[in-house]
Amino acid sequence: MNNNPELSDNSSSENDANQWDILPKENFYQHQQNSEEAPKSELSDEEIKQILRARKRNEQLKNNVEAKKHANRVAAGLLAFAITATALVGGIVATSQKDILETDRTKQNIIEMENAEEIVFYGNVRSNPEIPNSEDPSNIYTNTNDEIRIDVPEGSTILYYPGDKDPNGGWYGVPVDILESESFISDREARRLEKDHDGYAWINHNNASVTTESENSSF
Amino acid sequence: MEITPEITDQLTEALIAALPESAEDDYQAWLKNPSEEGFQDLLAKYNIDAAKIARATVLKEKENEQ
What we know:
The complex is a heterodimer.
Chain A: H1 13-21, H2 25-34, H3 45-62, H4 65-87, H5 96-104, E1 111-113, E2 116-121, E3 125-126, E4 139-141, E5 148-151, E6 158-161, E7 171-175, H6 176-180, H7 187-194, E8 200-204, E9 208-212
Chain B: H1 5-18, H2 24-32, H3 36-45, H4 50-65
Helix pairs in contact in B: 1-4
């Protein structure tokens, strides 16, 4: 019986799990020492399993041109946003809403995401990211059980506020008019959005992700 | 910073590596019928913080460039 999952061509997940269970650590470390990824410290069984699982999946992806193309397009979109978010050039484009933000918050480091296409999130939507949901009237939408997906209309801009003083980290700013028309927003929540002072509802980045238009269509 | 094929491959591999063992069947199903939306759904279903992994990839690349 072949105990080395890397040599096995059996793609059954159950059989693979069995192979990993009986994989001797010595064989794994011998292989590692023969590769460029020799570990500097001993890995747990679970970590070894995870590494082997990841290798197998990526090998399958390399052999599947169509899947690789689609996955890379998603990755390219994420990279475009990540590069923007990490730029932290400071300063913001002057608009009336931005001026309000400038007077309300730490002012620098708010980033515009002009190519956002979709935002996916679970609750924790506030009127002001610096005021917790426990304090009215910051609380807008708190249901964290349902995944919400919203298409960002063309021409709309999502903001990213790094939240340097916030233990929860960064926040995505979504124009309130995008949320107001969504079916998951209750009447009470819609009234709060109407009264929002800076025109943006803020969603914690730990509960959300933004997909941007891919800038590289060759993948 | 330019989005190169190398860094895109790097992020794709990291995203796939982040999928838990329980995602195996869904991942295999996606391979048979791949799509952008399907891949995004897969990441969302298993609560993969793709944005965070992307930021880490970008920061690592910037460190390598320096």
